[in-house]
Amino acid sequence: MSRVITYDELKAHTQKEDLYILIDAKVYNVSKFLDEHPGGDEVIIGESGHDATDAFEDVGHSDEARALLDGLYIGDFDKDSGLEIKSSTASAQASRLASAQAQQSSSNTLYLVPLAFLGGYFAWRYYTAV
Ligand code: HEM
Question: Domain Cytochrome b5 heme-binding: where (predicted)?
């Protein structure tokens, strides 16, 4: 059964035999998984008590690793309990959007460069023709 886990609860479960991990607004009980983790138990223990979304995403975990999360899920994180959390999906979307916009604006300004030269050339022709 899923429940809502507060920041205080998250901070109360940081021991190896009773360990909660917060990833993407969801909370997972990883105590039983620690010994199986290919990256070792230390890295996961180090991510307890706070938002582990960036640490989890930075490793570039596989789809298989993500599928394992389903079996460890215990509930959603209470977003109003004092910890500002990240959403990997939202931040990934934001960075994709930002890079698309950057590309668009750079191509917009790039096409002005030959136009400026053309303008300069005709201005030069106009003033030197007399
Ligand atoms: C509790 C959720 C987690 C699960 C289910 C999980 C699962 C896995 C799995 C299955 C792998 C093998 C490679 C792959 O399939 O991607 C892996 C590798 C790894 N994980 Fe995690 N992981 C979790 C959390 C974390 C966290 C919080 C960290 C913190 C930095 C971390 C760090 C690593 C590292 C460094 C490797 C690479 C190990 C190597 O290739 O030597 N993992 N993890």
Answer: 2-78
